Amino acid sequence: MRPTLLPRTVLLLIPLGIVPAMARGAETPRLQVPSGWRIEDTEYPPAWAKTLPWKGRLQLRFPPGFFRENDDYAWSYPIFYWLEGNVLEKQADFDRALRAYDAGLYRGQFAAQKIKIEFGKSQMTTKHSHAVVRRSITFHGFDPFVTKQPLTTHLEVFRWYCPEADHTAVLILRTPHPFDAEDKVWKDLLQFWEKVDCS
After folding, report:
1. Do the bridges between strand 167-175 and strand 123-127 make them parallel or antiparallel, or are there none, so unpaired?
2. Which of 9, 11, 29, 90 is the most buried (most CB within 10 A)?
3. Which pTM was predicted?
4. Does residue 151 have a pLDDT over 70?
């Protein structure tokens, strides 16, 4: 069998350090970092949920009021998954991923079986020509950090596959505030959806 040859244009660009996306793969998308927000970037699955089968990277951004009980931004943050392959297509997989992630954070303070997850209807949208599934989720869980009490949060979840990189992107916007596009917390969270990219 004859070897596959790169196009002449690619061969000319490589010595210059200019390698097209088809040759080097797409770069990992990055969440923006608003002023004063804390950054946490780590591997996926995280240390507290190692039983999850998917592999990739995890990015989180925490506002200054995240750990303050009465702050508007308490428990309000984005999470971005960048996972290998075309994964997390099924609701059952999302349920497993969300449940194991939070249960690990609780460190035995609240049983995983007590977590209740309500999935709204899926909606289709697009992100730079990629088909995106958007889900609204209500998560009845626990606050292991501040109140040590049951906590209900509302999630807007965007999932799409980037074939150029053979990775799945998942953006989760999470807050105790019910979804309202005019709410100031949701306005800030939705900026992460507007600005995140995969190309």
Report:
1. unpaired
2. 29
3. 0.86
4. yes
